[in-house]
Amino acid sequence: MTNLALGMIGNCSVNALVDDKAKIVWWCLPRPDGDPVFHALLGTNGNPGDGGFAIEIEDFSHSDQHYVENTAILRTRLIASDGSAVEIDDFCPRFLSRGRVFRPAQIVRRIRPVSGRPRIRIVLRPRFHWGKMKPQITSGSNHVRFVADGQTIRLTTDAPITYIRDETFFVLERAFNLFLGPDESLTERPGTLGREFQEETEYYWKRWSLRLGLPLEWQEAVIRAAITLKLCTFEETGAIIAAATTSLPEAPYSERNWDYRFCWLRDAFFVVRALNALSDLETMENYLTYIRDIIALTKGDHIQPVFGIGMEAAITERIEELPGYLDMGPVRVGNQAHEHHQHDVYGNIVLAAAQAFFDKRLLRQGSMEDFRHLEVIGDRAYMLHNQPDAGIWELRTRARVHTSSSLMCWAALDRLAKIANQLGLSPQHWRARANEVHEKICREAWNEEAGAFVESFGGQDLDASLLLMAEVGFLPPNDPRFVSTVDRIGEKLRRGDHLFRYHAADDFGRPETAFNVCTFWFIDALGRIDDRREEAREMYETMLSCRNHLGLLSEDTDPQTNQLWGNFPQTYSMVGIINGAVRLSRRWDKVI
């Protein structure tokens, strides 16, 4: 597997990763942060093929793979040496039915011959409890059940059950349909239901894409990024996961292996902001229900930076015994960041909610009661704006007054002043606090010797998160201090067309790979500064060239090889694709 040659399918209840040979290598149940019944992406402690769902063609030669245009349906063609071929359509059903969205915890695979007399076999080996438990298998005339302690999944199909159980090669003479999911019977014949589910799912995604407000340029990249971000939402609660995976290392053998299948309030804000820019407001509305629950849960006290997608506060980190991606363990489950104090979280909450007070399209607009709850968040932001924390990069053994955290505290106060004004209230209280914090950041975080804002009050090091100063409106993009900060960051953190988060050593030494969202932040900053737009466009094109064959990005990129590393697909990175296009595209009215 090179350069994370994976595609993502999903339906906002579950998601799965499919490699370029049509093998499902990652699928967690009963939801995205659950037990990976397919965990082949992280290796296996059993036999080769365990923890995966493969469809193999005999005498395999090569494959071709793409998404059905503007959908989350993945199509893979497997070609044998003699030219015979099969085509596989993979998707998780999602469509409107009986006045609601139908999104079961189910994968549908539709297989058909396209040339010659291909022989295929189906290798279906789910494993439970992180690969430790092999299920009991029972079967009937049209189904196979995989039974484990506390969980059962069922495959229902019109393909030969005996061949599936025995993993036998057979000639594929007609189309077959495979439904894998809950231990329930189908309501129709597999062929009828497979066709209906695919048609309805395709229609849903094409209608969803049709409503996006796209920039003129790079539309295919933006649509793919938007669909991918949508697949990273857990619609039941409104939570948004940072990535679909755990423990894909940020760099080879670095042990920077983290579980990203949870909702970071910081990352989720950026997802909401990017989709808002494309006029997808439904994601924001769903997420705000999650945020209101978080505020109610914490009652104005400390808010941790990350929660489970069911609002779980304790997502304790542990190590599982799988070998890891390319045998590069450890495999971590849970994330220690839930124990951290990261003060930027208060700004991320207010920023995510702010549009609800101004946008008349929303079904539930921001109310006076909502504002009063946000004021409690603002009080925390003001109280903590100059206190040490773990920072945006979640340093585990060091606390400082991080400039980026103080910046987001300022953003919370600034937006509360604007919301108060919108509601017909006096903004004076929040404006005075915002001004106080603004002055303190300008005084304490500016380093005259460096000619730049630095990562912490009184510090010396540069940090890519300072590029967000223009993004959140702290400084005008042509302010000399911001321009100088961008220049110094470029000098210290840029490697070719890629940007590192920081250059100082952290808990694991010096970073070895560039952080994709930082590169996109740099691109955005350049795009805002006079006379730097063309430079930004060139860097943006470079980042697009780093995507895998399906248009997806992980968290990190090796600046020497363009190899993708880190959890996948990373919402931060997909957000960067959207923001870059929106910032840099030529305008419609200048072309048409």
Automatic annotation (TrEMBL):
Residue ranges constituting the GH15-like domain according to the UniProt record: 220-579
Keywords: Hydrolase
GO terms for biological process, alphabetical: carbohydrate metabolic process
Keyword Hydrolase assigned: yes
Trehalase-like N-terminal domain span: 6-155
One Pfam family per UniProt: Glyco_hydro_15
Name of the protein in its database record: Glycoside hydrolase family 15 protein
